[in-house]
Amino acid sequence: MGPTASGKTDLAIKLVQKYPCDIISVDSSMVYRDMDIGTAKPTKEEQKVTPHRLIDILDPAESYSAAQFRRDALCEIEDILTHERMPLLVGGTMLYFKALQEGLSPLPSADPEVRAELQAELDEHGLGVLFKRLQQVDPESGQRIKANDAQRILRALEVYLLTGKPLSQIWKDNKPEALPYKIINCALIPEDRALLHQQIAKRFDLMLKRGFLAEVEKLYKRGDLNTDLPSMRSVGYRQAWQHLAGEITFNEMREKTIAATRQLAKRQMTWLKSWPNINVIKTLADVEKIIGK
After folding, report:
1. What gap in Å lies between CA 58 and CA 66, rounded to an integer?
2. Using one digit for the tens of pLDDT, what is the confidence trace for 220-263?
3. Which of 185, 190, 201 is CA-nearest to residue 269?
4. 112-173 adopts what CATH topology?
5. Class of the 8-104+178-291 domain?
6. Which residue has the higher pLDDT, 172 or 158?
7. CA 161, CA 136: separation in Å to the nearest integer?
8. pTM (2 d.p.)
9. Which of 103, 128, 156, 262 lies in disulfide reach of 177, CB 3.0 to 4.6 Å?
10. What residue segments make up the domains of the chain, in order of their start?
């Protein structure tokens, strides 16, 4: 695990070259085909040497959930183990790691009609009214969810309206199924935050040189994609889409992408700070202890 641009893929490839491991990608953007440069996907040459599972499995018009990832990852883990090799899960989508290890409670699927009613209420009365409503029907979720987190507030209210039960109660009544394997959690967390920020900017500039805008333009011209889709909400793709639509300049697109990537890295490291039983890899010396010089 680790923040974006920390060198996870490079380390994973070196580990596979040294140990009998097979890589399973834990990345919510790499699952999409035709999104290679902007997701920092391993190159075709790298994938020939060290294949990555759960990469290029969906069209960008499709959606993918943590529950779907858990199902697919469990299948891949079992297949790797039957071949007497070690599954090596690599990526930065922390929710996927959490869902895999802790399981997910059975919650009702999204209901378009209920969601539309809540959205209309949000548009008319504002988020504050909906948040107060959540605090009344589900005080525990009202304490846990931030007052400005519209997505989670709407989802918690939607679950309550569909089931008649508070979201917090459903979680208590349906304990998720834990992962039936021993896990070693390792996180590549750079000590120097400023250096990571420099690496983020350097990597995006390299993506631009490699043709990132042309990659997004092909998706833009398809006609069946939009920025409401999970794929096009990925960092970099959303900003490039805005640039291609004439909403922001090239320089604004670059700065917004770098800023959004830094925010993503910050969120990933926040997850990792509270992760239980984690082995932190901070320096080159730590890496050398694992893979040898």
Report:
1. 14
2. 999 999 998 999 999 999 999 999 999 999 999 999 999 999 99
3. 190
4. Histone, subunit A (1.10.20)
5. alpha beta
6. 158
7. 13
8. 0.81
9. 103
10. 8-104+178-291, 112-173
